[in-house]
Amino acid sequence: MKLRYTIIYVADVPATVDFYERAFGLRCRFVHESNLYAEMETGETALAFAGEPMAEMNDLAIRPNRRTEIAAGFEIAFVTDDPHAAYAQAISAGAAGIKPPAEKPWGQVVGYVRDLDGCLIEICSSIGD
Amino acid sequence: MAAGTGYVGVRLRPGTAGEVLGIEARTIAQRALVGDAALTTIPEIQALCLSVPNVDALVERLTDFVAGRMHGISVDPSTESMINMLHVTGGRLPVGDIGRLHGVDVRTVQRRIVSATGLTPKQMAMIVQFHRALRLRFYDRLDIVSTAIEAGYADQAHMSRVFRHMGGFSPARLPDLVLAGFPI
């Protein structure tokens, strides 16, 4: 099997796409006309967003992610040459700052924000840089 | 039901029935109105009862009636969001959590959902949870134990009690005529 998609259920798919474009510089690959599904251009493994009503259509039940709630136990990590600038860009695009980038003992620079729905996003340098 | 009997129906989005039928939703909640009882309670549906040449004409008339009555109906966005959240979470999210996620207290959730649907949030959550368990069990062919866990029942016995109470049948076997083949 191949890991081909990471799909996050979100409150508002177009707003999330717009946010990820502005905050993290991603490009959108595809938005379904229903506005209930979109994929970002992230290479072989697509970061995708599904509208929360899709959960019930798939016979699933989910706990919606919201900024005011405790973050769900997962994170999306973006690697960049300049975590400090990327962190600032995310904040200016509307991300909620949690932990500004700081150097780990192993030399990696790591910071955290929460996205529109409160999902944890890590912004880091690649290991060994 | 006599052999050869046919019927048509329409399923309304939660929160719209009161306005479509021109009544308070709670006045018909948990009731099945038949014949004169229905006509007395909801006089507007008299127009649907004139004879028609065939079933297709009946479907068309019902569709036109509902479409006309739906025109201009708007459910309060916050109330609609609360109802949607009951569905998204499979009826498993406590009412207090739904309130917190909408910045209102439990009583406000209660009041808004009862006003829109005629059902309390808890009653509605139980129906959503039951419907999902039905789909998992009979559409997705999940075994009984796994269905009970995924749907959020305490255990298999709990789920069986709910199935008997809400559907009149056991999770072991879906009766052939349940919902007459309509989607759950």
Tell me what you see in this structure.
The complex is a heterodimer of chains A (129) and B (184). Chain A is built from three helices and eight strands; from the N terminus they run βαβββαβαβββ. Chain A is an alpha/beta fold and 129 residues long. Chain A has a single domain (5-124), classed as 2,3-Dihydroxybiphenyl 1,2-Dioxygenase, domain 1. In chain A, a hairpin with a 5-residue loop joins strand 2 and strand 3 (37-40). The model of chain A has no long low-confidence stretch (mean pLDDT 96). Chain B has 184 residues and is mainly alpha-helical. Chain B folds into two domains: 17-70, no CATH class; 77-181, Arc Repressor Mutant, subunit A (Orthogonal Bundle), CATH 1.10.10.60. Chain B contains nine helices and no strands. In chain B, helix 5 packs across helix 6. Chain B is globular. In chain B, 23% of the residues are buried. The A-B interface holds A 9, 52-53, 55-56, 59-64, 66, 68-69 and B 84-85, 87-93, 100-101, 132, 135-136, 139-140, 150-152.
Keywords:
heterodimer, A: 129 residues, alpha/beta, 2,3-Dihydroxybiphenyl 1,2-Dioxygenase, domain 1, 4-stranded mixed β-sheet, 21% helix, B: 184 residues, mainly alpha, Arc Repressor Mutant, subunit A, 9 helices, globular
Give a topology summary.
The complex is a heterodimer of chains A (129) and B (184).
Chain A: E1 5-10, H1 13-24, E2 28-31, E3 37-40, E4 46-51, H2 53-57, E5 75-79, H3 83-92, E6 96-103, E7 109-114, E8 120-124
Parallel strand pairs in A: 1-4, 5-8
Antiparallel strand pairs in A: 2-3, 3-4, 6-7, 7-8
Chain B: H1 17-21, H2 36-41, H3 55-70, H4 77-88, H5 95-101, H6 106-117, H7 121-139, H8 144-151, H9 156-167
Estimated helix fraction of chain A:
10-25%
> Which CATH class of the largest domain in chain B?
Mainly Alpha
Overall radius of gyration of chain A: 15 Å
Q: What's the architecture of chain A in CATH terms? A: Roll
Strand elements of chain A, count: 8
Spatially, the strands of the biggest sheet of chain A line up as 1-4-3-2
Query: Mean pLDDT of chain A, nearest integer?
Result: 96
CATH topology of chain A: 2,3-Dihydroxybiphenyl 1,2-Dioxygenase, domain 1
- Helix-strand pattern of chain A, N to C? EHEEEHEHEEE
What does the average pLDDT of chain B come to? 89
Low-confidence runs of at least 5 consecutive residues of chain B = none
The CATH superfamily of the largest domain in chain B appears as Homeodomain-like
- Please count the helical segments of chain B: 9
- Shape, per Cα inertia axes of chain A: globular
Structural class of chain B: mainly alpha
Beta-strand share of residues of chain A: 25-35%
Radius of gyration of chain B: 18 Å
Distance between the termini of chain A: 31 Å
